[in-house]
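seq as requested:
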Amino acid sequence: SVRFCAFYSFVAAKYIRIPNMQVPEDITTHHTVKEMVTVANEYCVYLETAENKSMEGVLKFAGTILPLLYLKGSLLPGVEVEYPEANERFVTEEEWERVFQMLRDKFGATDEFWIIDPQHINETEPLKASLAENLSDIYQDMKDFVLLYQKDTLAALGLPGDQHTVKAAPYQQHP
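struct tokens:
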């Protein structure tokens, strides 16, 4: 989601100014952020060891944790990132491919499903999608998020915090 991507960008900076919100100056210590990191890490660890799990076990886990990831992500504070180039990606194409291939092999013929994508040229024509691809994409974003959270980006760059200041967007309810 756009909200999670903005927050992911923000984590790279760590230091923010938050108008009209009662949140600590370093928002990475806020309980909603810690909860999101915890759930994201659980998702990643499970998928990294899913080779030894049954297809039914993986589907049951996904059915449980994906709504929780959505909920925790929706509770993250909105932020405006001043330096989006501070984003880092840690998951390599090979790592993504390993998770994808393991899931695709596990799901077999049940991996593919049909969707209607209103952003597609023909918004009424069904498109084939892959559960393994979607779960792997989520894995990549969550793993990058967890690793970025664990890394002290500013210290690694040797920059003082104010060079990567991020301003929080005013809190708003999402439908």
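The radius of gyration is 18 Å.
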